Amino acid sequence: MLERYSIQPPQDQRARINQAYRMDELTIISELLDKAALDNRQLAAIRDQATSLVEQVRAGRKKSTGIDSFLTEYSLSSDEGIALMCLAEALLRVPDNETIDSLIKDKLTSADWQAHRGQSDSFFVNATTWALMLTGKVLTPERADGVLSKALFKLINRSGESVVRKAVDKAMRIMSKQFVTGRTIQEALSRAKKKEAKGYRYSYDMLGEAALTAVDAERYFVAYQKAIEAIGRSVDPKSNVYQRPGISIKLSALHPRYQEAHRARVLEELSPKLLQLAQLAKKYDIAMTIDAEESERLELSLDVIERVFRDDSLHGWHGFGMAVQSYQKRGFYLLDWIADLARSKQRRIMVRLIKGAYWDSEIKKTQMQGLSEYPVFTRKAFTDVSFQACAKKLLTMTDAIYPQFATHNAYSVAMILNLVGNYRDFEFQCLHGMGNELYEQIVPANRLGIPCRIYAPVGSHEDLLPYLVRRLLENGANSSFVNRIVDEKAPISSLVEDPVSKANHLLSKINQNIPLPASIFLPERKNSRGFDFTNREEVADLQQQYMAMDLSRWQAKPLLAGREGGEVDRSVTSPQNFAHPIGRVSQATLEDVDWALNQAQLGFSRWSQTVVSERTALIERFAELLEENRAELLALTCFEAGKTWTDGVAEIREAIDFCRYYCMLAENQMAKPKRLHGYTGELNELSLHPRGVIACISPWNFPLAIFTGQVIAALVTGNCVVAKPAEQTSIVATFAVQLMHKAGIPTQVVQLLPGTGETVGAALVADQRVKGVIFTGSTQTAALINQTLATRGGEIIPLIAETGGQNAMIVDSSALLEQVTVDAMTSAFGSAGQRCSALRVLFVQEEVYPRMLELIKGAMAELKIGDPQWLSTDVGPVIDAEALSGLRAHVQTMQQEHEIIYQCKLSEECNNGYFMPPTAIAINNMSALKKEVFGPVLHVIKYKRKDLDDVIKQINSTGYGLTLGIHSRINETVEYIRKRAHAGNCYVNRNMIGAVVGLQPFGGEGLSGTGPKAGGPHYLLRLCHERTYTVDTTAAGGNASLMSIPEGY
What we know:
With 1049 residues, this protein is α/β, with parallel strands linked by helices.
C-alpha cells in the first residue's frame, strides 16, 4: 500500500534534516541559540554598525523613489494598505472595463485616504495619496465636502470613469514596476546596467507560479532557456561565474504535479529538464539557483537537486546554487547535506540564505491539517536566530559553499560584516526595489565594495501578481524590518536588538502567540490529529504497519445487546477491484430489528439518567480509540469505500471532531438548566432531556464521519441508538461500533443493524418505538421517510435530513483563474465527486471563459485516476456498478446536445473497478440538469456580467440550497450574491467542500435538507425535549431576596 515499492525512511544527513521537520520549537531553538551566540565585543560592534546603517538609511530615504515610504504609510495594519494590496493583486489581470470599475470603486471608496494626506516626507507618497483620495471621492460623491464639491464630483463621476480607470491602472503599473526589473529579459538586462556599474550583480527570476498544466510548464521551461541564452550572451568574458548575472529557477513551475505524492513521476520527467537548463548555464558559466518552495516540497527538491548535481556533464562548473530558508526548522541541518554533496563532486554550491516567503501559509496549512508542529518558527526573533546560526555555519564551509546572504535587515548585514572580518569571497542579496538605501552603504567602491546580487523578477504585470502579494505581505507587515527601518516612530534601539537575547526572553512564551494545531480550539476542545504524507519516515512506518495486517478478512455483522444476529453473509469486494474480496457482511433480519429496539428501550432509562460528564468521558475515549486505530481505519475506508489517503485522513479527523465538539456542546447545554432571568420572586429554568431511541441511517460516501456524527450526537444527549449503515460500507460502521463498545458505551445504548434500506431502514422508520430519525442520503429517500413518519401514527417525532445539492460556483473576471482551477478540480473531482457538497455547475464570466477552459482542460489532463491505495491517485472509483451506470448514461445523454470540454482517460488498471473518468461538459443553462449528478462530472456555463441576477435565479430555481462557491475580488459582488442565493454553506475564494466541524456547520435548505446544521451549535437541541421549570419563591413566606437589598445599593 501507499507506494508500489518499499518506502525507505531518510538516512544519514537526510534523516537529521527530517528529524528537524516538525521538531518542537523549544528543543530546536534552544540548540540554535547556542550555535548563534556571539560574544559581548562582537555584539557591541554589530549594534554600533547597525545603528549607523539605520541612520544613513533614514537620511537617504527622502531622496528615494519612495516605495519603502509607500509601504510604511500604507502598512497592512491599515484598511488602506489592505485595499491597495487587493487592488494591486487583481486590477492588472481583469480584462473588462466594467469589472475594473467595480473593483476600483470597491477597494478605493471604502478607505480613509484623507487620513494619510501629508503624513509622509516622501513626495511620491503624498502625491499618490492625493490621487487616491480624489479618486475615492470621484467614485463616492456623497462623501465630498460642500454643495459645490458634490456637484463637481457627480459631474466627474458621470463622465470620468474611464479617466479614473486609466489613472488607477497607471498607478498600479508604476507601483508594480518597483518590483519588476523588466517585462522581458532583454529589458531587464538593459535596466540592470546602471546598477551593475556600481558593483551590483543580478539573478533573474522569470515570473510565474507553480504550473497547473503541462502547457504552462513547457512555457516556463522555454522562458528559462531563452533567459539563460540572453544572460549568457550578455556577460563580460573576463568575469567569472560569481561576478556574472545568473538565473533563479522555480522547480514547481517546470512540472504540473510537483508534489511528494508524485515523486517517481517528477524524478523521471523533471530531472532531465533541469539538467538541460544546468548544462546550458554551464555552457555560459553563469549561476543557476534553485528557488525555495513550500516546506512540504523540500525532500522532493533535494531528490531532484542531487540527481542533477551529480551528473558528470556538470563537472568543473561552480554555478549550481540553491536557496535555504532559515525560517524552516530544517535550514541549519540542510547546510551539512549541501556541503557533503558539493564535496562529493569537488564543486562548490552557491547557497542563498534567506528567511522565507511563505510563512503565513505554512502556519495556516499546518493548523488545517492538524499536524504535530509547525515546520517554521512562530516568532520572528527565532527566525533571526536561525539565520544567524546558519550564517555562522556557512562561513565554516566556504571550501564547499559560496555564501550568499539575502537580507534587508541592517542588523543582519552588520552581523555578517562582523563575522566575515576581512574575508570577501561572499555576497549579499536583496530583492529588486527593496533595501536600496541600505546597500548603497555597502556596495559602492567608495563604501565597503562588497557585492550585492539583486533578485530581479522578469515578466508581465499579470505574472507579477502572486509575487507582488508575497512582497507586500512580507514588507508591509508591522513587524517587517523594511517597514520599520523607514518609520521614524520606531526607535533605532528596537531595530538593532540582538536576536539571541530577544529569543531567550521569549522561550517561556512559545506557542502563546500562535498555538500548536492541537490547541487551536482550546479551551473548548482539542483539535483532531492529521497525518503528514510528506514526512517519509512517517509514511514508511505506516507502510510497515500494513505489512503486518491482514487486509482481507474484515467482518460486518449486526451488533446487538444480548445475542448474536444476522443471516447468511455475503462476500464484500473493493470498488476499485471487484475481483478483490476484503471481507464478509452478515445482514440483519426483521427479528434483529425488533430485538434491537426492545434492548434500546430497556437501556434508555439508565443511559438517560447518566450524568452528562460520564457520557462525554466515554465518547472522548471513543475519539481516542479512533486515533489509535487510524491505520486500520484508513485501510478500511480505502478498500471498502474507495477513499484516497487524504480523503481517509479527513474522514477520520471529522469523526473525531464530531465527538469532541458534541461533547463540548452537551456539557454547555445539558449539564445544568439554563436560568431565565426576569421579575423578582420567581425561579425559571429551561432544561434539555433525551427523547428515547433514535434511528441513525447513514450514507456510504462518508461511512465513518457522518455515521459517527449522527450516532454520537444522539448518544451524548442521552438517547439510545439503533444505527443502520449504508449497505456498501457496513464494515467501516461495524468497526466504529466495536470501538464504541470498547470505549465503555453499553451495548444496549448503541446497536448496529447492517442491511438494506427496504428491510432494515423501512422497519426502523415505521416503528413507534423510534423517537427520532437522523438521515443522510438522497432527497427522494428523505421524502419517503418524512411521509412514513407523518402517517405511522403516534407522537410527532423529529427528522433531521441532510440530502443532496445542485451546487454552483460563480467566477467573475476579477478572480485569480489559477486559484479557481485548483479549487474547481478539488470541489468537482475530489472523492470522485461523491460528496453532497461537490461542485456540479461552474459559472464563468465570458471575458475569462476561454482561459478558464484552457486551465480546466490542462488541469484535468494531469489528474491521476486509479486505485486509491496508491498515494499518487487523485480520483478513485465510484461506489458501485449502479452509480457508474447512471453517470455513464448521463454523459451519453448530455453529449448529444452539449459539448464535452474534456474527459480524462482511464488506464488499464481501471478495468477491474467502478471508475468513472472525470468529465467536464459545456451547457447553456442549469435547467439542462434534471437531477443531481452524484459523481465526477462538472458542468460549465458561460455568463455575461449583466446577467448575474439570472445566474442567481438559475441556482435558486433548482430548489436545492446546499453549497455555493464565489470567486471574486470585489466585496460588493460577493455580498450581492450571498444575500440573494439560497445556500446553507457559502465559500468565497476557496474550494467548496470539506466543511470543518464547529467552524463551518454543514447543512442546506430547501431540497437539500431540514437542518439543523451538522457540526453546529443547534444540532443537539433537535434531539432533546425542552422542559420549563417555574417556582414561585415567595410562596413560602415573602420575597426575602427583595427585602434584603441594602439601602443605597
